[in-house]
Amino acid sequence: MRRRELVAALPAALSAGCTIGGDPPVPAGDEFRLTLPGHGDRTVPERYTCDGAGDSPPLRIEGVPERAESVAIVGEWLRGYTPQTIWLLWGLPAADPFELPAGLPSEGRLDSPAGARQGTNGEGTIGYRSPCHETADNQGYRFIAFALPDRLGLDPGSDRDAFDDTLNVERSTVSSTTLSVRYERFPEERTA
After folding, report:
1. 37-49 pLDDT per residue, tens
2. Phi, psi at 176, each rounded to 5°
3. Domains (ranges, CATH) in the chain?
């Protein structure tokens, strides 16, 4: 969390016009996209939250650039200036389209999709941490998909700092895309 805390301490004026804390850049004309199938309103269904089964959501990845060899996904809870990591997943195939099934097990190494790995979320557990905000604010979540020129050489269970370091130091990203969603957990969120 060290890098994200440092960035959070920067005054907003310094980050004007850049992507710190915002969506990752996507090259113009890029068709790379991430969707939550069947949920065009971008609301997380209860099944994928702490009020439901807490299963990881199904995601559809499309428009993967030809130069990509793998895809990685980061899930974040957008609370304040420092997003909390709710999911780290890498080693996904660069198939186009690719359907990630719901309900992945909370294990570092996954049998399916073959070669996929999960890291440690902000709560210190491996795998998906379902949305579960405790107040009517901070209902925003996002999933960021990175198209990578190779596979990340990370051990299963690696944390966000190791993920970020490997992503930024060892390779460049071919492309990235963001899916912003919300979980309307409280009645006052639905009327706001």
Report:
1. 877 778 888 999 9
2. -150, 160
3. 31-103+110-191 (3.90.280.10)
